[in-house]
Please model this.
Amino acid sequence: MKFIQIKNCYKVYKNGVTAIADLTLDIDKGEFVFIIGASGSGKSTLVKMLYREEKPTKGTVEIGGINVGKLRNRTVYKLRRKLGIVFQDFKLLPKLTVYENVAFALECIGLKGSEIRPKVMNALEMVGLKEKVRSFPNELSGGEQQRVCIARAIVNDPKLLICDEPTGNLDPKTSKEIMNVLEDINKNLGTTIVMATHDKEIVNRMKKRVIVLDGGVLTGDHLKGSFKINENV
Amino acid sequence: MKMFRILNRCIRDSFKSVMRNISLSMASIVCTTITLILVAIAIIVTVNVNNVTTLMEEELTVVVFVNKDVTSEQVKNIEDALNKLENKKEVVYKSKDERKLEMQNSDESLKVTLDYLAINPLQDTFIVTVLDVDDLAPTAREIRKIDGVESAEYGEGTVEEIVGIFDVIKKATIVIVIALVIVTAFLISNTIKLTIFSRRNEIEIMRLVGSSNTAIKLPFIFEGFLLGLVGSLVPIILTIYGYMLAYEKTGGTLAVEAIKLVKPVPFVLITSLFLLVIGAIVGMFGSSGAVRKYLKI
Ligand SMILES: Nc1ncnc2c1ncn2[C@@H]1O[C@H](COP(=O)(O)OP(=O)(O)OP(=O)(O)O)[C@@H](O)[C@H]1O
Ligand SMILES: [Mg+2]
Model:
C-alpha cells in the first residue's frame, strides 16, 4: 500500500470554484515530489487537503492508511503531529529566539524540557543553524528564517514534510541552499517530501518526480528525472 | 504528566497575555470591578430589604377591638370565630385590665392619666397574627363582620405600601444585576477577542504543529477566569470593610428601630464568595464566547 493515496478527489470551494477535479495520485514513502502548475491551478489546495486544512468535497485522501478527509476537527491535531509543514511566508514568532521557535512545536504537544533540547539541537544542526540559536527572527536573512521553519517542521520526526512554495520569497542562490537542506532531509531522514512550487529552475535542476496540475486537473505525472520544463510553459 | 505540562503552559500563557495586553486587561478588570461593586451594592440592598420585609411581616398583626358591652360568652364566641379564620397564625386575647396594666407600666404619663380615671376606658382586644401579609385587608374585613367586634385595625395602607416598594426595589436590583453581569461578560469577551487577534499568528502555528483544540482554547478561558477573579478583589474588600463599617456606625439599625441590618458575619463572607464566583464565571463565559466566535475550532 502506498503512503499517500488520493482517489477521485474533488475540491469545490464554497464560492463554487472547482480547485481540484477528479485527482487520483499515489506517493510512496520516502519520495520527493514536486507539484507544479500555473497560479490558481490548485497546488495549495491539494497540499491543504494533505494536512487537512481543507476537506475533499468528493473522493478520498489517505495518508498512512488514515482517511484524512474523514478526520473530525477535534482530532486533526493527531494528524498534524505526524506532519511537518513549511510555507512561503515563514510564520515565525518574532518575540521568540530561533531555539524557542523550534522548541515551541514540541512544547505545544507537551514534551518535557529534557526531551525538547536534544531534538531542537538536532533539527537546527540538520538545517545548519546551530550557531544562531539565540538570534531573533528579525536578525536573520530570509533563507535563515526559512531554515528555522524547516527545523521546526522536522523537529518531531515527521514521516511527511509538506512545503508550499518554500522558496517563493527567496533569491535563486538562497533557494538553492534551501533545496539542499530539503534534499538532505529526504535522503538522510527518509522523510517523504511534497513540495508545491512554480520555480522552474529548481524543478529542472533537482530531477525529482513532478506532478503537473492545470486548472485543478492532473495533466502530467513525470517520474524521477524525466521532466524538463520548457521555458515557454 | 503530559497533561500537567500542557496545563502549566496554558496558565503561564494566560498570565503572559494579561501582562502583554496590560492596558486592555486593566480596562476589563476595572469594568469587572465596577460591575461587581454595583452587584455587591445590589446584593446588600436586596438582602437587607428582604430582611426588613421579613421582620415587618413577622410583626404584622390585626388588633381586634371588642364591643364594650359584651358578655364573656360573646368574647368566647369571637375567639372561636377568629380561630376559624384561614389566614390566622395565632390569636392572643388581652382583656382591658391587662392592657391597662401594660400601658401603666410602659409610660409614666399614661400611668398618671389611667390612675386618675376611675373606670377603665380601654376595650378587650384580640391580637391576630396572620400567615399571609398580602391577605391582611380581606382578613381584617372578615373580622369586622364577626358579631361583637367593634373594629379591626392594622397599619392599613402604609404597611402594604412599604412591602410594595420593597418588592419593586428587589425586582429592580435583580434586573440591574443581570444587566450588569451581561455587560461584564461582553467586555471580557471583547478583551479576549483582542487577545486572540493579537495572538493569531501564534494560534495558527499552534494548530499547524498539532496543539489540541483544548490546549489552544484553555489559555483564553483561563485568561478570562483570571480577569474576572482579579476584578472581584476590590469589590470583595469594599464589601467586607464597607459593610462592617456601616454596621458598626449605625449599630445595626437604620432610621427607625424597625429597619434592622443583617449581621455582617457570615453575610459579607457569603457575599464575597458570591462576587468571586460571579467574577470567575462571567470571565470564563465571556472568554469562551469569544473563543467560540473567533477561534473557529
Ligand atoms: N479558500 C478559498 N475559497 C475559495 N476559493 C479558493 C480558496 N482558496 C483557493 N481558491 C481558488 O481555488 C483555485 C486554486 O487555488 P490554489 O490556491 O490552490 O492555487 P495555487 O496553485 O496554489 O496558486 P498559486 O500558485 O498562486 O499559489 C483558485 O482559483 C483560487 O481562487
Ligand atoms: Mg499556492
Chain B touches chain A at residues 2-3, 5-6, 9, 201-202, 204-213, 215, 297 (CB under 8 Å). The pocket of adenosine-5'-triphosphate (ligand 1) is lined by residues A 13, 15, 17, 19, 37, 39-45, 198 (CB under 6 Å).
